[in-house]
Design a protein that fits this description.
Layout lengths: L2 H31 L20 E6 L2 E2 L4 E7 L7 E6 L2 E3 L2 E5 L2 E5 L6 E9 L2 E9 L3
Parallel strand pairs: 2-9
Antiparallel strand pairs: 1-3, 3-7, 4-5, 4-8, 6-7, 8-9
Amino acid sequence: MTHATTRRQSRTCFWVLGLITVLLSGSMADAKSSSAPGGKTGKETLCDYRAHPTITAVTPTQVKPGQRITISGKNFGSKRCFHSVSFGAKSTDKWTYVSPTTVEATVPSLLPGAVPVTVSTEAGTSQYKLDVQAK
């Protein structure tokens, strides 16, 4: 083996090690940015962007404005990752996050008929038709 070959192999080795170091430091930065403040980690602090919400039921099925409803489903995420509830084009701030599968909301003033209730999370939205009765 010549001195030139050994030098070329040495440079290649350092280049590969440098690349690995850069890739690992980028991965560590990503991991740090998705953890809770202060370096603490916990499932409730992370939002799963792949777990789209799904409403499976709304009870009661026939409602009147001002009535409280329970929205059941899956993948509502953590309280931090849950954003809103809306009825048709009307959003409401009268909702309570209960769990990753349950949210409660108060029906706003709406015209009678089929109205989509929508939940919005960090991962997307889901709709369910609600039968609104006259007040």
